[in-house]
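Q: I'm a student working through a structural biology exercise. My instructor gave each of us a protein and asked us to get a predicted structure, then write a short paragraph describing it. Mine is Glyoxalase. I'm not confident about reading structure output yet, so if you can add a plain explanation after the tokens, that would really help. Here is the sequence I was given:
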Amino acid sequence: MSKPKPIPDEYPRVTPYLHVQGAAEAIEFYKTVFGAGERGRMAGRDGTGVGHAELEIGDSMVMLSDEYPEMDAYAPGHFGGSPVSLHVYVEDVDAVYAAALAAGAKSLSEVTDQFYGDRSGTFEDPWGHKWHVSSHVEDVMPEEMERRAAAQAQG
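A: Happy to help. First, here is the predicted structure for Glyoxalase. I'll explain a few features afterward.
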């Protein structure tokens, strides 16, 4: 019998794991906004809620569960918010951002063209997680990026 791989082929090396209050609703939100595919879902220990779920967003994965204080698994609200945010490249940032707001997200920064060549915006989902969404719209050489960053810093 062969030894299993320490990093399974079907899992990326780094995977964010989100804890929320209302994981089933969050899964539907991520499906609507990002077109996420659900790889699997397990009920919580008591047979209710979401004990573990895996979502595919493009070639990436996000794991999530309901909040379980007895396991030190807390949603951002427990801490007054989260210091961590997630960044997702999408095909159409304007459409994804609009879908997020329509599905109940809070706008943190409107979608705008950035000096480094992305068109980006930021929202907070209804469970307190911050998402930066971007579409790359321009390849910018390092020298030009520095010039644009300096110009932006000067107003």
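A: Here are two points you could use in your paragraph. Helices lie at 23-34, 93-102, 142-153. The longest strand covers residues 50-57. It's a good idea to check both against the output above yourself.
Q: Great, thank you!
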